[in-house]
Amino acid sequence: MLRRGWPVLAVLFVTLIGCQEKHYPIGGKYPEQVYVRVVSLSPSASELLGLLNAENSMIGRSAACNRPESLRDIPIMANPDPNFDLIVSNQADLVVADAATLAPRHVEKLKELGIKLKLIKIDSVDEWIEAVWDLADMFMAQSTASKEIDRVTEAMKKGEIDPIRPQPVALVAMGAGKPWVAGTESFQADILRKAGAKVVGPTGNRFVTVSPEQILEWNPDVVFVSDNPDDYYKSPAWAATKAGKTHHIVGVNPDLLLRAGARVADLLNSVHDELVRSRE
Prior knowledge:
- The protein is α/β, with parallel strands linked by helices.
- The protein folds into two domains: 8-144, Nitrogenase molybdenum iron protein domain (Rossmann fold, 3-Layer(aba) Sandwich); 157-277, Rossmann fold (3-Layer(aba) Sandwich), CATH 3.40.50.1980.
- It has helices spanning 8-16, 43-51, 84-89, 104-113, 125-139, 142-161, 187-195, 212-218, 229-233, 236-239, 242-245, 254-257, 264-277; strands spanning 38-40, 58-62, 76-78, 94-98, 117-120, 169-174, 180-182, 198-199, 207-209, 222-225, 249-251.
- Strands 6, 7, 8, 9, 10 and 11 form a six-stranded mixed sheet that branches. Strands 3-2-1-4-5 form a five-stranded parallel sheet.
- The protein starts with 7 loop residues before the first helix and ends with a helix.
């Protein structure tokens, strides 16, 4: 996959007018700085750094960062709040974090300390792809990024080339007794959409508490949950849905379902396969 390469004529034009723009290599641009002392403050960020083989540059992580396995020996510098004394004393030159989980006060503190902060905001597969490219540019890992993005692109093609008919209605939930459902503009909803589902749920990009009446109104064909699916069959509202009646309430590892991390292709493939099974 090629990305961000300039057309030859454009490069010639810039040269002729005397502009001193950098000439980017095929596949990405040269980083403004080489980062060798990186702290990750969120699990999804750590997974993406690992995906790009950049975990060797990490000197710190949050207590929740558990993937890849190679992170186990990296010191914890957030649990859950960042330990700024540790971050400063270890001379971090970059902090990477999920924009949805890092508190504004922590963002301001890092600015005060003069530490470079890379915030990652991912509410869709397209934003995941862009985030991977951005990190790849920072760590000169464009070749690795291209391979992983190709895997995600191939997984999305399943739902495009051979649409599931009739299109299954689906949502993502957690907490059977007091349910939370992913908003229709969330990353989880976009995964379902790209895999071939018609997504239902509350508006917005976050998980929201919902009532039994709302669950029955949506009446999904498939429900993907981050906890034990058996608990949902014990709930009258969930059991009364099409998903409950046909046993299509599917448990997914929460690290896989709730993170925009390193295994997006695997998640897309798994969700697509479950949607297909719901129509067999």
